Amino acid sequence: MEVYNVTADAETFTCNAFLVVGGVTTLVDVGAWDGVVDAVRDHVDTVDRIVLTHQHPDHVAQLDAVCEAFDPDCYAYGEHDHRTHAIEDGDRVDIGDESFDVVYTPGHAGDHVSFVSETTLFCGDVVVHDDGAFDYGSFGRTDRPGQSRERLVQSIEDLLDRMPDGVEYMYAGHGGEFHGDVRDVVETSLSRAQKREPKYPDEQ
């Protein structure tokens, strides 16, 4: 299973959008970069499906363009005009060459889900490896309307409960990719989130 960050060259603010090439070629989030369709075409001619971690603009702004270009199925927890398959906590979704468990992980966004297999975690913004706040084990911000640090903490705990011990690849919505002990990264994220301290200096 090959994974490419097709928004890596973006100069505008966007999430990481991951193209997973395998039995079911899948785009995990689409990002907000207007070059994403061309970047996908650098690797494949077709995309079988899109799976969305959540629908914040930096994750779905190019959904119209990607759907027009590839006409994929679209899996999402929250309603959307392009959604062809509604997913819920506990569902299974094939991404690339592996089957992933859908874990409902709100707090940063009410429609947030993560996808975890025996080897790999696609976690959107619920946890990240590194960002502007922390270099090893961070978490999505919760200081904006509709967000909840308490619910985010519960989501990270749920994710740990559902994550196999052998997961070694972590692909988050922001920051770098990680290969190693993913459980340790997520546990570090949890301990920081539990402190309830502001993630950013301007967070209230």
Topology:
Layout: E1 2-5, E2 18-21, E3 26-28, H1 36-41, E4 49-51, H2 57-60, H3 63-70, E5 73-76, E6 85-86, E7 92-95, E8 98-104, E9 113-116, E10 120-124, E11 127-128, E12 138-139, H4 149-162, E13 169-172, E14 178-179, H5 182-194
Helix pairs in contact: 4-5
Describe the protein's architecture and organization.
- GO terms for molecular function: hydrolase activity; metal ion binding.
- Its cofactor is Zn(2+).
- This is MBL fold metallo-hydrolase.
- With 204 residues, this protein is an alpha/beta fold.
- The chain has a six-stranded mixed sheet with strand order 1-2-3-4-5-6, with no helix packed on it. A six-stranded mixed sheet has the order 7-8-9-10-13-14. It has a two-stranded antiparallel ribbon with strand order 11-12.
- Strand 3, helix 1 and strand 4 form a beta-alpha-beta unit.
- The chain contains five helices and 14 strands.
- Helix 4 (149-162) runs antiparallel to helix 5.
- It has one domain (2-194): Ribonuclease Z/Hydroxyacylglutathione hydrolase-like (Metallo-beta-lactamase, Chain A, 4-Layer Sandwich), CATH 3.60.15.10.
Write a concise keyword list for the protein shown above.
single chain; 204 residues; alpha/beta; Metallo-beta-lactamase, Chain A; six-stranded mixed β-sheet; 14 strands; 22% helix; globular
Radius of gyration: 16 Å
Order of helices and strands: EEEHEHHEEEEEEEEHEEH
CATH architecture: 4-Layer Sandwich
Number of domains: 1
Broad structural category: alpha/beta
The coarse overall form would be: globular
**Would you report the number of β strands?**
14
Major β-sheet annotation: 6 strands, mixed
How many helical elements? 5
Distance between the termini: 41 Å
CATH fold category name: Metallo-beta-lactamase, Chain A
> Uncertain segments of ≥5 residues (pLDDT<50)?
none
| CATH superfamily membership | Ribonuclease Z/Hydroxyacylglutathione hydrolase-like
Enzyme class: hydrolase
Keywords: Hydrolase, Metal-binding, Zinc
Pfam families: Lactamase_B (PF00753)
EC number: 3.-.-.-
